[in-house]
Specification:
The chain is α/β, with parallel strands linked by helices. It has one domain: TIM Barrel. The chain has eight helices and nine strands.
Length: 248
């Protein structure tokens, strides 16, 4: 299950009282939810030229990790921001610096994942080699790996329709062992479009046959999968993914 613990577009985080925490855990048990994933707000930008935005991002990441630890979440996942203010080299340097600050002194069990991007504009993280370099630069085991979004990676040039070749490329660039979660989303746009446009499963440019391969890989590696398509229609997408998972 994927959740936000605060408004994704901005605003204060609601207090997690002991009553709320216990109720959340009871409902997780009731509905047999094994793993909870927290998505950070969309405004995170470690590479901003604005100190308030950079340090605000540090604060939010740390808070989300602490909140995740309170409710027993497995991972917090985040995008990294854009280098448009500072340029690529300085932006990546700032990203590593800010991520390091956000993790300094944290000792909870909830870990951090970096989600790949579609690469629109100068968004960080469309290149998995770039993410690998950031993880290496931070050098903190709290960053467990990546959340691999199928649509984002397809839009940034990873052709999942040539599955074996692309899987090998991903392994060479970042290592398959660092894939801790997969966002299963089809793509409205062509491979390499650099546009973040999710489509319902089987109705986009990735297609059902390719999702069969992706799901088979996830099962073999015991990687959780989540769907981020729009309502209405997501319920059907989940049904399709379950059938592919169960070979029906």
């Amino acid at each position: 299950m994927q959740i936000f613990t605060r408004p994704p577009q901005g605003g204060p985080a609601p207090e997690l009282t002991e009553k709320i925490i216990q109720q959340f855990k009871i409902l997780n048990t009731k509905y047999q939810i094994q793993n909870t994933y927290i998505h950070t707000p969309y405004y995170i930008n470690f590479a901003s030229a604005n100190n308030r935005i950079r340090y605000g991002s540090v604060k939010v990441i740390r808070e989300e990790l602490e909140r995740g630890n309170l409710i027993g979440a497995k991972y917090v996942m985040t995008h990294l921001g854009s280098t448009k203010d500072l340029g690529e080299e300085e932006g990546i340097k700032k990203t590593i610096e800010m991520l390091t600050k956000s993790l300094d002194g944290y000792s909870g069990s909830t870990q951090l994942l970096i989600e790949n991007s579609a690469g629109a504009g100068e968004i960080i993280g469309d290149d998995l080699k770039e993410i690998a370099g950031i993880i290496k630069g931070v050098n903190n085991l709290i960053i467990a790996g990546i959340c691999l979004d199928t649509q984002h990676s397809f839009a940034s040039g990873y052709d999942w329709n040539d599955f074996r070749k692309t899987l090998k490329k991903v392994d060479q660039e970042i290592g398959l062992n660092l894939i801790k979660l997969i966002h299963c989303n089809d793509s409205q746009t062509e491979m390499g479009s650099h546009k973040d446009r999710h489509e319902h499963i089987g109705q986009g440019k990735i297609g059902l046959d390719t999702f069969k391969n992706i799901i088979r890989f996830a099962k073999e590696k015991n990687i959780d999968m989540l769907c981020e398509t729009e309502w209405p229609g997501m319920e059907k997408d989940i049904e399709i993914l379950k059938k592919l998972r169960d070979n029906k």
